[in-house]
Structure formats: C-alpha cells, structure tokens
Design a protein that fits this description.
Strand order of the largest sheet of chain A: 1-4-5-8
Structural class of chain A: alpha+beta
Largest interface: A-B, 42 and 44 residues
Largest sheet of chain B: 4 strands, mixed
Radius of gyration of chain A: 22 Å
CATH superfamily of the largest domain in chain A: Butyryl-CoA Dehydrogenase, subunit A, domain 3
Number of helices of chain A: 11
CATH architecture of the largest domain in chain A: Up-down Bundle
CATH architecture of the largest domain in chain B: Up-down Bundle
Oligomer: heterodimer
CATH class of the largest domain in chain B: Mainly Alpha
Strand order of the largest sheet of chain B: 1-4-5-8
Order of helices and strands of chain B: HHHHHHEEEEEEEEHEEHHHH
Strand content of chain A: 5-15%
Distance between the termini of chain A: 19 Å
CATH class of the largest domain in chain A: Mainly Alpha
C-alpha cells in the first residue's frame, strides 16, 4: 500500500505540467472555474491546443484518436488541468456524444461529426429531459414518426443546457409508442438545431444566468441518416454513457480552492481581536469539511486505482458524485454564513465588495451549484443505484 | 499508487478471518465477559501462535518486522470478526515502545514474551489526550534516596486488571516525557477494576506514592516523547482500522437483514427510505476507510504530516461510526436493541473505543493546529 505515483506516472504528470506551462495562456486560466461559465471561444482555442497534442480525445477508442490512458493517467491529467485552472472542455461534445458516435456511428457519421467535434465547429446540447420525464427518463414522449427518409419529430425538451448556443443536439425520441417496455421504443437522433420547426426559449436560473432552455419540436423533419445506433435502440446507446471514463467526478481540486476561498472570507471577517477564522465553532466546522475533503481525495484515488486493477465497484461513480456534490454544497453554505449580511447583496457592480475580495461571486456560485446534486443523475437516483447494487450482490462490503 | 494488501498480508488476513470466525463470538446467550476472558486466556496464546502479536517486532526478537500497513491489515480483520483481543495494547503500544526505547536487556526480557503472548501490558499516560489536558499529568519527582516517585490518576486504563506490566508515561506531552515499566502488583499502584461497556477489562488507576528505580525506566529521562507520540498515533490508526472492520461488519449485517426481514408483505430492502440511508452509511464507511489507509501509509514516516493524517482519520472514523452504528440499530428495529445480536455489541465497541487515543474533538483541534502550522 502506498500513495506515491510510479515513475511512469510521474513522468506523465511532468509532461502534462510542461504542456500546461507552455500552452495554457494566462488569460484562459480560471475562466470556467464554475461549470456555469461557458466561454465558447476560449474553449474552442483550448480544445484546439489539446487536439494538436492529441490529448483532447484521449479517452476515445484508439481507432478514433484515443490514447488508451489508464484510469490513473486520466485522473492525473484532470487534476493537473484543474490545478492550472484550465478552461473546462466540452463535456457534452468530447465527453459524451463523441465517444457515442465512435461506438455506435456509421462510418459516414464518424467522418462527418467527429472532426467537427474535435475542432469545436459544433456546440452540442443534450436533449434528454422533458417536462414529464426527469429522473424517470424512459417515460419520455417526444415522438419521431418515420416518413420516408425522415423522422418527423414533435414534442418538447426542457432544462436543455446550452441549447441557445448549440448547433446540434443528441436527442432521445420515442420511435415506437407501442413497445412493451418504455425503454424499448426509444431512439437517439443527432439533430441540426437550425432545422425548421425548432424553437428555443430561454429559462433563467436562480443564479441570474441563462444555462437552461426549453426546446420545442414542431414537426421537425430529421433525415434518417441522423439516427445514431439502431432504431428503437436509443436507450442502450444512452446507457453506454455510464461506462465512459469517469475521472474527475468528485472535483476535488476545485473544491479545495473553494474551501480556501471560504477560509479567506472568514479571515477577513473581524471577530473580537481576531477574525471569524479564529472562532472555535466556525473553525471546527470548516476543519470537519476539510477532513471530509481529504477523505474524498483519497477515496477518489482508491476508485481510480481499483479501476486499474479491474477491481472497481459498479456504484463507485455514484458514491463520488454524491460525496463530491454534497460536500461542495456544504462548503458553499459555510461560505455564505461567513459572508454575513453581505451575502444578501446581489453581486452587481454597485454592490458593496467583501474585504476578502473572494466573496462576491460565492453566493451566485452557491446558487448555481444547487444543481450539482440534480444534474448528471440526481443524487436520489445515485442513492438508488448504490443501494440496489448492495442489496443485490451476494458478497458484502 | 497502491491500496491493496500484499500477497503475504492477504494470506495472513485470510487465516485471521478463519481464526476469528472459528472462535468468534460465543453463542448469543453467552456472557460476553466470558468471551473477553477467553480472548485473554487460551485464545490469546493461539493468536500469538499465528504471529499476530509479533507483527511489528524486529526479526531479532522473534518478530515479523512489519509496519503500519500490517497493523491495519490485522486490526481491520479483528473488527470484521468482532473480536476484541487486546492487540493494540500489546502488539502495538508495548511492543512498539519497548522496541524503540528499551535497553538491550529490556528488549530481551520483554519482546519475545510479547510475541509469544506470555506477557501482557497496559498503558497509561494520565489521560494526556483528554479534553483540556495540557500535561504534565503523571507527576514525576526525584527523591533524595535516588528513587523516583510517580503520582497521578487515570479514570480508565483499558486492560489494567489483566496485564502483567503497566507502562506509565509521565510528564505530559512533548519531548520531556519519561516512560516507566512497572509490574501490575506493585506498591503504590492502586487499581479499581471494572468492565467497559464493550465488555473489556479496565481499571481506574491511582499512583499513590509509587516509587521506582532507574532500572524501571525505559528509554532515558525526558526522552520518550517522540516515540510515545508516534506509537500512540499508530495505535490510533490501528483503532481506526478496527473501527472500519466493525463498520463493514455492521453494514453487511444490515444489508442481510434488509434482504431477509419482511414487513407489509415485502423485504425491507424494497423501501427507499431505508435504501437511501444505506447508501449514506456506505459513503461514510468509504470516506473513513480512505483516511485510515492514508494515515497508515503516512505513519511510515512519523511527523506533522502523519499526525494530521492520523487526526483526520480519527475524526472521520468517529463520525462514520456514529452514523453507521446508530443506523444499523435503527434498521434492525427492536432486534437491534437485543444483546443477543452482534449488532448492538459492535456499536458498543465503537462507542467505547472512540476516546481511547484522543476524542474526535481532540483530533479535530489537533488537525486544525497542524494545518495552521503547515500553512504558516
């Protein structure tokens, strides 16, 4: 048992650091510290730099530019990028639809879409949730009726992140309303957002941003060539997402930065002769969160290391997701408490600034991050997955 | 990076698992104190024959030359088997302190006896890690006769009624600490035996005019602090590992119960209210186990980093133990309250062990101080 990286891992880590030193421009650093600040132009430039190095698609299959990195290499790469505050790369394009097209796409689809994903020519959005289908995704109703060489799509998607800037959507639709099981009648379509009949309406969120949209399909004619995987096989295509590379779920490095921000806020809040950071009650609570973060950091390494030995558990990713998101939310809440009355000020230009300089953004980020326990499979669903897996397995812990 | 046990450790764990399962707990209605007596009698010598008590000792003294990872490998397995022989007091604290600090003569006299299970020890430091204690807690005075006098008291000294020797650390924390070894039956050592809530022998200790010779000293005067601190940290990690084993055992028993117990015509496993709490129990267990591994690895090189890791592990273990222990009882319903079920006994063990090497609050504050120092 030991915590050190192997010589090969250390040299890989150094290669990543050298690359980041050389290629990651100062003005790009920190632009997407929080998931909700997408900067498409910077993201495209950063992705181009990664693509030139061959690292953008490291997790893809070898035939499509994948590098066969070990789970630990992915972990090291994500960790170093996070430490250097590199812009996020597009989770939906690079992390989700790219690998799906590699796995299920026809040669023609791969030839058309993959280069556009790598170059950033397309921004992708994910058309899964509907007004009546959130966690119970298989109940989705958006219909795609076959008519000659086209599907006629009608229905509505909602909570569609980036739909207002996206040029394409990977979209789950119901192609067989008579199927015995709801999962059996679903297909995945790659939809050009410029097609006639698509209306995108913004939804403004509690953090004052626009991430979400409603997307309406009014008899949109989508060519059959845009079907990904087999007809009625869409559920299996979507499920394949669960098996993709999952390092970085717990977001430990960013959460440690957040914890430091909260400590800075507390240090700038006077209390008696000292600061809030010297207050035993506050400091105890902050320390508990720091210890929990230490635990999570090691647990994430254990998950990666177990994956290398093919000894991982099928609910590891769910645990990381729950622990990472809920810990971050707790730290946000403590930060808001530390801000005191100033936490009530909406951080416009005319709002009073916090002495720490770190304060203004925290409330907005905290509001945004309520979504952390909802997106990517709500934490309730993750708890279902963990419990069902434990209660089904013959062997215990 | 590696979080697995070596082949040798895995094999040893397997034989320990069989050993604990064969002895294990006596049948449900048996007096748990009778189990405790056997763990300190016939079973203790069998445990020694397996090599358990020699894990940390150097080969020169019939030891196996192991380290902190061997320690957690053993204690985690003991926890899983819900077996509570006094491994920590003997194989870690006594063996570790005498190995590091003892003279050649003391090592020769004591270490093979520890390894073989022939001599048993208890350790007392005057509750150095109790909340508010700043030491010195056992007072050491040099008498005109050339002898040394120790005075002080400790409310709970685990294993004291069963031990052959008491190790007494005086002078409080820090470099000024001095260690003595004294036979349990000795003028000036007043023990009031009692049982702990997890059915282990303990005693309150009063040192009332205890006089000792220089020969009773281990490791010189005012020179034991560093070793005592490192060994107590190792004991703390070992206990976190035992706690992890106990928590795994509680989880497995709770899972089995949810699968088999039916109410409203279906197994409890079907109820989401219970499923979600089970998921939280597992999450707490994995977090705690993670820091225990980190602390064990860091303990190979004792210092501020390892101290912070140990304190972090202790805080996380205490938190996980409370959640898992209480939820395990709750989900077993009234059965969880029964002394016949191992669940309640595991929870009592978790409760009783928490303060032995520093309470969660002590470790929380120590972690904070170390972090501030590290940042400065």
């Amino acid at each position: 048992m030991d915590l050190t990286l192997s010589a090969a891992e250390l040299s890989f880590q150094k290669a990543v650091r050298d690359f980041l030193d050389a290629e990651l421009k100062q003005e790009w650093r920190g632009v997407s510290d929080i998931d909700n600040r997408m900067q498409p132009e910077i993201m495209a430039q950063w992705q181009a730099a990664l693509a030139a190095k061959g690292w953008l698609t490291a997790a893809w299959p070898a035939a499509n530019g994948g590098l066969g990195w070990s789970p630990m290499q992915h972990h090291i790469f994500k960790e170093e990028c996070s430490k250097a505050r590199a812009p996020k790369i597009s989770a939906m394009a690079i992390g989700m639809i790219g690998p799906l097209i590699c796995a299920f796409g026809t040669p023609a689809q791969q030839e058309f879409y993959l280069p556009r994903i790598i170059s950033g020519a397309d921004i992708w959005c994910q058309g899964f949730s509907e007004p009546g289908s959130g966690s119970d995704l298989a109940s989705l109703k958006t219909a795609a009726r076959r008519e000659g060489d086209s599907y006629i799509v009608s229905g509505q998607k909602i909570w569609t992140t980036y739909a207002h800037v996206a040029s394409r959507m990977f979209c789950l639709v119901r192609t067989d309303p008579t199927a015995a099981r709801p999962q059996a009648g679903i297909s995945m379509l790659l939809i050009d957002m410029a097609l006639p009949g698509i209306t995108v309406r913004p939804i403004h969120t509690i953090d004052g941003e626009q991430h979400f949209n409603e997307v309406f399909f009014d008899d949109v004619r989508v060519p059959v060539s845009c079907l990904l995987g087999g007809e009625h096989q869409g559920w299996d295509v979507a499920r394949a997402l669960l098996a993709f590379e999952r390092s970085g779920i717990a977001d430990v490095v960013a959460t440690r930065q957040l914890l430091n921000d909260v400590a800075q806020i507390a240090a700038a809040e006077p209390r008696g002769n000292g600061s809030l950071l010297d207050d035993d009650d506050f400091a105890d609570r902050l320390t508990k969160l720091e210890i929990a973060l230490d635990s999570l950091e090691i647990f994430e390494m254990r998950v990666m290391e177990a994956a290398e030995r093919k000894a991982g558990k099928n609910y590891d990713a769910s645990l990381l997701k729950i622990l990472g998101s809920e810990l971050k939310q707790k730290i946000h809440m403590l930060g808001i408490e530390a801000l005191g009355p100033l936490a009530a000020a909406w951080p416009d230009d005319d709002a009073p600034a916090h002495a720490s300089g770190a304060g203004a953004k925290l409330v907005v980020d905290a509001l945004f991050y309520r979504a952390g326990s909802i997106y990517g499979g709500a934490n309730e669903i993750q708890r279902n997955i963990i419990a069902k897996s434990l209660l089904k397995a013959a062997a215990g812990i | 990076m590696d979080f697995s046990y070596s082949d040798v450790q895995t094999e040893f764990r397997a034989s320990l698992q069989r050993f604990f399962a064969e002895r294990g707990e006596l049948p449900g209605k048996a007096d748990p104190r009778e189990t405790a007596r056997r763990w300190r009698g016939a079973w203790w010598r069998e445990l020694a024959e397996l090599g358990t008590l020699a894990a940390l000792l150097p080969e020169a003294y019939e030891g196996l030359g192991g380290d902190s990872i061997d320690v957690i490998a053993i204690l985690e397995q003991a926890g899983r088997g819900q077996a509570a022989p006094p491994i920590i007091e003997n194989a870690i604290i006594a063996a570790g302190l005498i190995d590091r600090l003892g003279s050649a003569r003391q090592k020769h006299d004591f270490l093979p006896a520890i390894a073989a299970g022939r001599a048993k020890f208890a350790f007392a430091d005057g509750d150095m890690q109790a909340p508010g204690a700043t030491g010195p807690v056992f007072k050491l005075t040099r008498l005109e006769t050339g002898k040394y006098q120790l005075e002080g008291r400790q409310a709970v000294v685990p294993e004291a009624p069963e031990c052959d020797y008491l190790l007494l650390a005086c002078g409080g924390a820090g470099p000024g600490m001095t260690l003595f070894c004294v036979p349990r039956e000795h003028a000036g050592v007043v023990l009031q035996p009692f049982w702990t809530l997890d059915d282990r022998p303990a005693a309150s200790l009063v040192l009332d005019g205890l006089e000792l010779d220089a020969a009773d000293n281990i490791g010189g005067f005012g020179a034991a602090g560093e070793a005592v601190s490192a060994i107590l940290d190792l004991a703390c990690v070992a206990q976190c590992a035992e706690a992890a084993g106990l928590m795994a055992s509680l989880l497995n028993k709770t899972i089995a119960h949810l699968k088999t117990r039916t109410q409203f015509g279906q197994p409890l496993a079907n109820f989401q209210a219970l499923q979600h709490r089970l998921a939280d129990m597992v999450a707490a267990y994995e977090l705690s186990l993670s820091l225990t591994y980190k602390a064990a690895i860091a303990s190979r090189q004792p210092g501020p980093e390892s101290q912070a890791a140990v304190s972090g592990a202790a805080v996380q273990a205490a938190e996980a133990a409370r959640l898992i222990g209480h939820e395990a009882i709750q989900m077993h319903g009234a059965m969880g309250m029964s002394l016949e079920l191992p669940v309640g006994r595991a929870v009592k063990r978790l409760k009783a062990m928490e303060p032995q090497f520093g309470s969660a609050q002590y470790h929380l504050r120590r972690y904070r101080v170390l972090r501030v120092k590290r940042a400065a």
